[in-house]
Amino acid sequence: MATISANPKRKISRFNRFDNPWLNPFLITGVFLIVIILLGAFIGQFTWDSDLALVGNSPLKQPPVGVSHTTLRGTSVGTWEHPLGTDGDGRDMLAVMIVGAPRTLAIGFIAAAAGMGFGILLGFMAGFMGGRVDDVIRIASDTTITIPSILVLIVIQSVIPVNLVGMALLISAFAWPGPTRLIRGQVLSMKESGYVKMARISGASTFDIMFKEMMPNLIPYLAASFIGNMQGSILAAIGLEVLGLGPQRVPTLGKSIYWSVQLSGLSQGLWWWWGFPALILVVIFVGLLLINLGLDEISNPRLRQKVE
Amino acid sequence: MKGITLVYFLRRFGIFLLTVWIAATLIYIIPRMAPGDPISAMVARMTQQAGYIENSDVIIAGWRKRFGLDDPWYLQYGRYLKNLVTFDFGYSLASFPTTVKEIVFRALPWTLGLLSVSTALFFFIGNFLGAMLAWNKTPRIIKGLIPVSMIFTSVPSLLAALMLLYFFAFQLGWFPSLSAYGRGIVPGWTWTFIGSVMWHAILPIMSIVVVTFGFWTLGMRGMMITVEGEDYVTLAKAKGLKPFYSLYRYTIRNAILPQITALALTLGTLVGGQVLVEYIFSYQGMGNAIFTAIRNQDYPVIQGTSYILILTTALAVFIMDMIYPLIDPRISHEGN
Amino acid sequence: MSEAQTSHSNTTAKAKNWADAKPVLKVDDLRIHYETPKGAVIAVAGISFTLYEGETLGLVGESGCGKSTTAYGILQLIQPPGHIVGGEIGLEGKNLIGLSERDFRRLRWTKLALIPQGAMNSLNPTMKVHEQIADVIVTHEGRQSKEKIKQRILDLFKTVGLPARIYDMFPHELSGGMKQRVCIAMGICLNPTVVIADESTSALDVVVQRVVAQTLLKVKELLGVSMIMIGHDMGLMAQMVDRIAVMYAGKIVEIASVHSLFKEPMHPYSQVLIDSIPSLKEKKPLKITEGITHDPRNPPPGCIFQLRCPHVMDVCRSKEPVMRELKPRQEVACHLYEVDAKGEVKNVAASA
Amino acid sequence: MSQPLLDIRNATKVYQVGGGIGSKKKEVVALQNFNLTIADKPATITTIAGESGSGKTTLANLVLGFTHLSSGNIVFQGKDISDMTHSEILDYRQNVQAVFQDPFGVYNPFYRVEHVFDLVIKNFKLHKNDSEARDRIEAGLNAVGLRGEDILRKYPHQLSGGQRQRIMMARAYLIKPKLIVADEPVSMVDASLRAAILDVMLKLRDEENISFLYITHDLSTAYQVGDQIYILYQGSIAERGPTTSVIDKPHHPYVQLLVDSVPQPDPDDKWETDIELPDEEVMRAADAKGCRFYPRCPNRWDHCLTAAPPLFEVAENKHEASCYLYEPKVAVKR
Amino acid sequence: QTPRNETVIFDIDGGNVTAPTNFNWMVPGTARNQGMHQAVWEPLFILNYETGEIMPYLGTSFTANESLDVWTLKIRDGVKWADGEAFNADDVVFTLNLLLGDETMTLGGAADMQQWVTDVAKVDDLTVQFNLKAPNPRFQLDYWSVRIWGGIIILPEHVWAGQDPFTFTNYDPAKGWPLGTGAYKLTSASETRFTYERDDNWWGKDVGIPEMGISGLPAPKYLVWEVTGAEENKVQLASQGELDSIMDVTLGGFEAMVANNPNIEAWVDGMPYVWFDPCPRQLSVNNMVAPWDNAEMRWALNDLMDRQQIIDVAYEGTTIPSQTMFVEYGGLLPYINAITGAGMTLGTTADVEKGKALIEKNGYALNSNGFYEKDGKVLSIEIQTHEAFIEKARIAAVLVEQYRKAGIDASTRAVAGATWDENKRFGNYEGVLDWDACGSINEPWNSMNRFTSRFLKPIGEASPGTNNHVRWSGANNDAYSAIVEKIGVLPLGDPSIEGMVVEAYQHLYDDMPFIPITQARKLVPFDTTYWTGWPTQENNYNHPATWWMSTHQIIHNLKPTGN
Ligand SMILES: Nc1ncnc2c1ncn2[C@@H]1O[C@H](COP(=O)(O)OP(=O)(O)OP(=O)(O)O)[C@@H](O)[C@H]1O
Ligand SMILES: Nc1ncnc2c1ncn2[C@@H]1O[C@H](COP(=O)(O)OP(=O)(O)OP(=O)(O)O)[C@@H](O)[C@H]1O
Ligand SMILES: [Mg+2]
Ligand SMILES: [Mg+2]
Q1: Which CATH superfamily is domain B112-288 in?
Q2: Containing domain of residue D310, as a range?
C-alpha cells in the first residue's frame, strides 16, 4: 500500500513460516480437513461396527447422545450405543458417516482422476497436434458442454446397474472438457516457451517434451483443476443419489440425505439424519476449496502477493 | 476491424449447427440404448390399477405403430432430425396426445423467468463478492464473512432448497411454499397474478442462488487478482482516479469478461441443477417437466427438453463468440 | 579535472541557470523493501536526490537495481509485498509521505505524472484511448463539456504527433510507438510539475524510439516540466538528459551532469557502464566486468559494489561510502577518492 | 573448395494468421526470397539485423527447424534439412545449436540448472561415463568463466541474467556444434554483462571454430563482433556485406535511417534533425510488388513500384543493397 | 383465493401433471385423478369395500342372464350432463361403440371391452344390453363399479360425436368442456393445481342418490387438487391446515403432522393408522432361472424372510404380514380363513434353520465369506425395485440384509419404471418386488387367474399383462390352472368356490412361485379442522382412497365444521 506499512515485522514472520509455496496455510488447512475425515473413517472402521450402517441393524430414529426426541409414541433419549443417533431405517449414523464419507470422497476422486486422464490426453493431443485433431477435440468438448449431463446420467443410471466405480466413470464422461481446455491452452503457450524449444534442440523426444518438460510445470494447474473436478463430481454423484439412483445397499452421504428428504426427516425433527451428512459434506467441500485456493497460489504467483 | 465478417459468421454458425447436430444425435441415441420399452411402460401405467388386460400386447403394438417406433432406425432418425428444425418432437409418450412442443413451451416461460432472475442474481452477487474478496480496500470483516456465506455451495441443491423452504415458508411463514402462484388466482396479465408469481418465485430463486454464487465468487477472485496485477491498473492508480471508479472501470470490467464466457458455457448445467429445486417447490417449469419425463421414460419429452437446453447453450456460446469482440475489443474476428 | 570544468561551463544556456534553479522534487533517504519468503529484498536502499525545475534527470543502472521501484515509490504505488520503509519525498517543499490517501490521490497526475514502463500493457484494453485520457481530466478537474474535452485531447494528440483518428480507437489497434505516445499525451495532459518516464522507449525499434524520444524532448521543452527519465540505454541518455544518476543495487552511486559522466565518470561502476557502451564508430576490444551482483536480500557490509569492483580495497568491505560532491555538481559514493585539505580530489588507488 | 556450412536459398516463409476453425486466414510474408551462405571455414559471425517484425526470429526458427519453409531450401553441409531422416535430424540438432533472447524462459523452472546439461548429454550420448560427463560440463562452464559447483545445483531463478546467458553458451560449447543461432542473446542482459557474452562468442568462434548466426536489432554490438551483416526490411534483405563496410557506409535509404537513428552515446553529438514516421496505414500498405520501403523512402520514384528491387553491388567484397538507386544503368539515367 | 372454509384441498402425488388440459381419459396423458373422476365424471356403480357390495350410482342395476353372457344396464332417471343434456342410453352405446371400434385397441378400455363385448344395444332411453363373447360373472364388478381406482367413463355423445378420440383433448372452458355429470365444474387446471367449483344446478340437487345416502348438493363449494411434491412438503402443509386430504405418508410424517395439527386423523384412530391398499407386496421370483427354478429354493427364500422385521423397519410397524396371496378385505376373509385353516399360513417371522436346511439339502455349503456356494458359484439373488416407489426399495433393503445374514449374496437395484416393467414382462430378473397378485377384492378368482398356465411365456417373450411373469409351470401349475378356470365361470358368491380355492391354493403353496410379504398399507391422513365426515374405520361407509373414482361418495359425505 501507499503509506508506510504499519507493521512490517508481522508480515515477515508470517512469510518465513511458509517458505515453501506448497506449505501455504490454505493448502495445509485443506489437506488437514480431508485427512481428518479420512482418518476418522479409517479409525472408525476398526473401532466401530460398520455393519450398523446397514438397514435394520439398529433401532429406528434414536437421537444422538444427550438429545431427546419426542413423538406421539413417547420420548427416546440418545445413548452411547448410537452416539450420533440412528436414522428412520435403523442405520447407525456414526457408522453411516464412517462408511459414507470415504465413499463420497472416492467417487469424487475416481471421477476426477478419470476425467483428468482424458483431459490430459486430449489436451496434449489438441495442443500438440493442432489442426484437424484440435478441431475435432474442440467440437467434441463444445458438444459435451452443451449436453445437459444430469439428464444423460439419470437416463443411463436408471437402467444400467452401476457400482461406485461405474457411477464415478459415468460422471467423468462429463468432467473432461474443463481439463482439456486448460491443458490445451497451457500446452499451446508452453510449446512456444524457451525451455521446450531448448529441449527440442537438445534432441528430446516428443514424449520427453510432453511428460518431462511440460508436465511438471502443469502440476499445480492440474492439481487445482483436479480438485475442482472432484468437487463437481461429488456434487453430481450426490445429485444422482438424492434422486434415488446409484449403488443401493451401502450408504453414502448423498443417499442418507435422499432418505431423509424422502421420509421427512426435517419435519420430524430428526436433524441428525440429514445434518451430519451435510456437515461432513461441508467439511469435505471447505477442505477441497482450501486446497484449491492453496494450489491457486502456487500456480498463480500473483495470488501469493496478496498477503495482508 | 471490429465488424463480423461474413465468412467468420458462417464458419462459426456452421460449428454451432455441427455441435447441435452431434449433441442432438447423442440424446437421440442414449435413451434408446437403455433397455425397457417406454410404450409398454406407458401401457402398464394406463392399466396399472385396472388389474390386468388380456390384450396388452396388442395395445403395445398399436401404440408402437402410432408412434412410428417400428420404422427402421434411419427413418426414425431422419424424422427426428427433420422435426428438430420445426421444434416438432411429436407426441409425448406419457401424455399422449399432448405434444412435446406444448409441454416444453408451457414450461419454458416459467423456467426462463426463474433462471434469468437467479442467473442475474448469482452472477451479480458472485462476481461482486469475488471482487470484494480480491480488492485490497475491502474491510477485513467482510473478507472473512464472504467465505462463510459460501458454505451453501457445498450442500446439495435439494437439501438447500428444502431447508430454505422449511425455515422461510413453513417455520417463519414469510414466503409461500409451493406452486408458481397462489391458489385461486387466475393466470392473466393482472397485477394480482404477477405479484403472486413474483412472490412465489422468491424461494426457488434463493435456492438456486445460494448454491451457485460461490463458484462465481471464487472465479472472480482469481480473475480480479490477475487483473489487479496488470500495469494498466497500476497506472489507473497513478492517474489519481477515485478508487471505486478505477475498481469498476479498470479492474472489474476486465476481470469479468472470462466470467461471461464461462456463464454461457454453464447455461445447460444450470437448468440441470434446477430440476430438483423445481421438484421441491412443485414449480411448473422445465425442471419438473424433465424430471417427470425421465421418470416416465418419455423419450420425446426428454429429447425435446434436452434439445432446448442444447440449443440454448450452443446458442449462448455462439452469440458469445459473436459479441465477444464488442465487449472485449482485444479479440477481433480476423486476428487470432 | 579541468576538462570537466570546461565541459561544464560551456554547455547550453539552460545548464548555466542551474545555480539558481528551483528544486521541485526532493527525495531523501528513500528505502523500499519487498518482503519475500526468504527475507526482505532491499530494492531501494536509502537514496537521495533533487530534481530541479525544468530539468531532465536520467536514472540508469542495470536491470533490477531498483529504478522502477524508485519511480513507483515516489508515486507511492508500491504493490504489496513491497512497502516504503523510510525516507522523505518533498514536492515543492511539501512532504508527501504521511499524506492521507485522499490528499495524495489529488496530487497524482496533477503534480506527479508517470509514463510507465511497457506502454504495451499500460492501457486498459477495454477502454477507448480518449476515454482513458478523459477520465484523468474529469477526475481532477470535474465534469466539463464533451466538446471541450475532445478538443483538449485532440490538441494533446497534435502535441505528441498522433493522428486525430486514433481518438476513437482501442489500444490494441495502435502500434507500439503510438501507444507510447498516447501514454506521453496522457502524462502531460494536466501539465504536471514532474513527469517520470520509466523506460518509455526501450521496447521500441531504434527508428521509432528516436521519434518517440524526440517527441518527449519537444513536449518537455514546450511545457517546461521537470522529468525523471529511467532507462539503461546510455546512448539514449546521452541524447536526452541533463543530469544522470547512476544506480547500483538500490543505491545511487553517482550523480553528475551528463557531460561529466560521459567524459569523466568517477565511480568504478559508472566507468564500467560508460566503457562497455558499444560504439558504432570504432571497433574496440570488449571490456568485461567479472563478478556477480550480491543477493539483494542480504547486501554485504560496506560498499555494495565491492563484489565487482576492479579497485576494491579493504575499507570497501567494512565501511559504507557516502555521497560526496567531489566536483561541482558531481556527487560520488566511493572510497577511491579523497578530498585533501585544499579541496583537491585525489584517487587513492592511483596515488598508492 | 569445400561446400558451405549453411546455404539458404530463396527462402520464403508465409504465415497463415488466424485460420483454425471459425476465422478466415490472412497471409503474412515473414521472409521473402532470402539467400544466405555461411562458409564452412573459417568460422564467422554473421549478423542478421533489422527492425522489429522484419523476420529475424522467423529465420532463426527456420534454421532450427521449428517451422518449415513455404518455399526455398535450407541446406546444411550439402543436405537439405527438410529431407533429413530421423537420425540425420538428431545429428543436425547436434551441429546447429541455439541461444535465445530470453535467458530466463529457456530454463525449465521445475529443474535445477544441471538439467540443461543432462538433457544434451543424455540425448546426444556425449558421455562415456558420469565422470567424463562432469568433466565436459566443467570444461564448458570454465570456457564461459563459470564454475560448476557454483551453479549446477541451483535453480535458474537463483542466477543473474548474465550467468544464465553464459550457461547457455557453455551448453552450446559442450555440444560443440558447427553453428550457433543466437537470437538476440544480449538484448535482455544489461550493458555491463553484455560484453562478457559477446566475448564468449568471439572466443568460441576463434578457438572452437563455431560459426554464429547472430540475430540482433542492436547495430552497435553487431559492429563490434560481426563479420558479415544482413539487414532485413519487412522480410527482404535491404543490404548486406561486411559489417564494418555496411555500417560505416550504408547505401540503402532504410539502412541509412537505421544507422542514423542509433543514439550516440555522446552528449555532444545530439540528434540534429527530427525524423517523421508516416502513418501506420501507409507503411502497412506497402505494395507487394514493388519496393517495400517505398512509402517511407525519401528517394522514391515510380520505378521502385515496378518490382521488388534485387541486390545491387554497391562496393567491393560483396557489399550489396536492394535499391534501384544502385541499379547500374538506372543510376546512370537518374 | 377461495375461502378456506369453503374449500377442500386434496394432494396429488407423484410430481407435476405434464398435460393438465388433456381430459380425454382414453389416452395415456390424461388428467383424470386430479379431481375429474373424483368430482366431475361419475361412475355407474361403486363397490363398497367394507361390505363387498356394489352400490348403484348413475346406474341403478346391472344384471346378467343365467348363462352370464348377456348383461342389462339400467340407468338412473333424471341424470343430466352439466350443460343440461340428459345422460342416457345413447351416451352409453356411443361410448361402447367408440371403444369397440378402435382397431388399434389403444384407447383406454378398448382392449377390455373388445375382449368381452360382442355388441351393445339400446333397449330404451334408460336401458342398455351388453352381449358378451363369453360368460363373465365379474363383468359389472371389473369394469363398472370402481373395483380399483376407476373404470370406463361414459362420454357425452353430443360432445364427442365426430371428434378424433385419439387427439381430442376435451378441453374448452368456453364450451364448458370437460363436461361431466358431477356436482363440480373445472375452473382452472395447471401442471400443479386443479380447482373446481360446485355446480349448484347439479342433476341430483333435489333427489340425490338415496341408495348411497346422497341427498342434494355436496357441502364444499370449492375443491382443489394440488401437487405437493416431497413428503416434507405434505407434512408441513398439513401441519398448517393447508391440506385436507393426503394420499399417503410415512408414520413419521404422519406423527409430525399430528404433533402440529391434532385435528388430523387416519383410517384407524391409533396404531397402525393405516388402510390396506388392494395390492399386497410380494417378492416375485423367476421360476425359470436357476437355482430359483427349484421350489425348495423358493421355499428357502420364504423361510428366511422375517416379515415382522420388514414391518418394523420398512413400515415402522404400520402394516401386517400377508398370510396368503390375498388382500385382507372383508369380502375375501372367508377364503383366507379357509386357506389358513388348511394349514397354509405364511410365517410372520423367519425360520432360518429350515431355510438353511433347504438350501444345504440342495447341495450348497457356506464359504469363507459366509455365503452359500455350490460348484464354485455363490448363491445370489438380485432383487429389482421400481425407482419411484420408495416403499418397495425399503422392503428390499431389509430383505437383502436378511438374506445376506442367512448366506445368500443378495442385492437390490432400483430401475426406472419402464425398465422394471419390461424386465418383468420378458423375465429378465431373478427377483423383483412387485404387487402382481393384485386384483381380487371381494372374490378370489381375479388374483388367482393371473398365475394360470395360459399366460405362461418363455423368458424373452412378453407375459401378457405381466400375468404369470414369474413363469410358474409344471404339474402343480397345470392342476391349479384347471381349477381356476372352473372357478372363473361360476357366479359370484357360488358356495362351491371356497373348496375349489383351497384345493388350487395347495398347488400354489407347494410350489411357492412368488412370496407374498406384507399387506400394502396406505396411511391416508385427513384434516378435520374444516371438514368432517371422512371415512374411517368407525365411519366406514367406504375406503379412504381419495384418488379413486369412488371419491364422489366421500365428497358428498363431508360436512363443514364452521371453522
Ligand atoms: N514483487 C516483488 N517481490 C520481490 N522482489 C521484487 C518485487 N518487485 C521487484 N522486486 C525486486 O526489486 C528489485 C528492483 O526492481 P525494479 O523493478 O525496481 O528494477 P528496475 O531497476 O526497474 O529493473 P528493470 O530495468 O528491469 O526495469 C529487483 O531486485 C526485483 O527483483
Ligand atoms: N507464428 C507466427 N504466426 C504468424 N505470424 C508470425 C508468426 N511468427 C512471426 N510472425 C510474423 O512474421 C513477421 C516476422 O516476425 P519475426 O518474429 O521473425 O520478427 P523479428 O524480426 O524477430 O522481430 P523482433 O525484433 O520483434 O523479434 C512478423 O510480422 C510477425 O508478426
Ligand atoms: Mg523497471
Ligand atoms: Mg525476434
Answers
A1: MetI-like (1.10.3720.10)
A2: 268-334
